[in-house]
Amino acid sequence: MMNIKQFKTAVQATAIAMGLSAGLAVGLTSSAYAADYPEKPISLVIPLGAGGSHDLNARVMTSVIPQYLNQAMIVQLSPGAAGQKGTNEVATSDADGYTLLFTHNYIDQLQQHVENIPYDPLADFVTVARTNFAPIAIVVAADSPYNTAEELFAAAKENPGKIKMAHSGNWGALFVPAAQLMQANGFELNLVPYKGGGPAMQALLSGDVDITMGFPSTLAGQLSAGKVKVLATAGSERIYDDVPSFSELGVGGDVGFMHRVVLAPKDIPEDRLTMLRDAFGKLNDDKTYQRMMSRLGENIDYMSGADYDKMRAEQKDAYKTLVESITGG
Questions:
Q1: What does the pLDDT look like over 197-244, one tens digit per residue?
Q2: Tell me: the pLDDT tens digits for 71-120?
C-alpha cells in the first residue's frame, strides 16, 4: 500500500508531467497556427473601380506573390463613397490575415478630415507594405483643343466652372491635385466624380468630360494608341521628354503624388503580419515582377510596413493642414 509520502510524490510527478504536456501542446498549436497560414486564398480589396492604376498594379502583384505565400491572392474591387465602402469592409473584417486593403494615402489619411468615417485609419489598420508611389499627370483627349497646360489653365480662367474634369472621388487621388492646381493657379474646373481612375479615363475617352488625370499604368496603353495627350506631370523632373513637370509650371511640393499601400486590420496576429511583410519584400525583389511593373510604366519604390506606418502618422497632420488651406476652414 502507498504511504502518504509516496502518494504526495506521485501526485507532484503527475502534475509536472501534465504541465509539461499542456505547455508542449500549446507550443505545438501555436506553431501549427503560424505554419498553416495561409491555408486559403487571401482577398486583396481595392476600394476603387476597374481599370484604374490600383487595379492594374494589383493584377501584376497577385500574379507573382503566390509563390511567396504558397497560396493565391485574389483581387476584389469594392468602389463607392470615395473609397470608404471598401475600406470599411476591411476595417470590420476578421483580423486573420485573409482580407487586406490595397489603397492610397488620400483615402487612408485625408478622408478623415473631410468626412465622418466609421473607422479610425491609424487605430484600425497597420501597414503591410507601400508597394510604390506614382506621380499624377494632366490628361486630355488626343483631339482636345488644349495642347499645353498653359492653354488649359488660361481657358479655365476665362470660363470658370465650364471645363469638366473627371476624377476618382471627392478628396481622392485625382481630386486633391486638381484642387491644389486650381488654388495655385487661380482657375476653376467643374469636378465630376466617378468610381475610380478607370471610369474617369473612360469618361474622357467617350467625350463626357474635357480633362482627367492619370498615372503611368493607366496612360501607357492610351498613349501608345494615340488616344490621349499628357499636358504636365507631378514633381520636379519630367517623366515624358516633351511634357513639362508641375515644378516648371510653378507648382512644387508634394502635389500629385500617390502612395500605393497594402493595409491589414490592426489586430492581425503578429506572425501573420510578419509573413505578409516578408512576402511583399520578396515580391519587390522578384525579377519577373520588376519586368512586369516596368512594362506597366510603374516604379518599384518599395517601403516596409513599419517605415510607412511612421509616414502615415505624419500624413494625418499634413493633410489636415492641406484641407484647411483648400477649404479655408
A1: 899 999 999 999 999 999 988 898 999 999 999 999 999 889 999 999
A2: 999 999 999 988 999 999 999 999 999 999 999 999 999 999 999 999 99
What are the residue ranges spanned by the domains of the chain?
Answer: 42-133+258-327, 137-249
What is d(CA 206, CA 204) in angstroms, rounded to the nearest whole number? 5
* Residue 200 CA neighbour count, 13 Å, CB half: 34
Residue type, 3: N
Instruction: Count Cα atoms within 13 angstroms, Cβ side, for 52.
Output: 34
Mention every residue, 6+ apart, whose C-beta is less than 8 A from residue 181. 138, 246, 251, 255
Q: Which H helix or E strand runs over 311?
A: helix 305-327
Angle of helix 287-296 relative to helix 216-224, nearest 10 degrees? 60
Question: Do the domains 42-133+258-327 and 137-249 sit in the same CATH topology, yes or no?
Answer: yes
Q: Which residues pair with 230 in a beta bridge?
A: 139
Question: For the whole model, what pTM was predicted?
Answer: 0.81
Which residue has cell 478630415?
113
Which ranges constitute the DSSP H helices of 37-110? Answer: 53-64, 66-69, 84-91, 105
pLDDT tens for residues 139-181?
999 999 999 999 999 999 999 999 999 999 889 889 999 998 9
How far apart (Å, rounded) are the C-alpha atoms in residues 228 and 222?
6
Domain spanning 42-133+258-327, CATH class: alpha beta
Return the CATH superfamily for domain 137-249: Periplasmic binding protein-like II (3.40.190.10)
Looking from the CA of 258 toward its CB, the CA atoms found within 13 Å total 29
Please tell me what DSSP assigns to residue 264. Answer: E
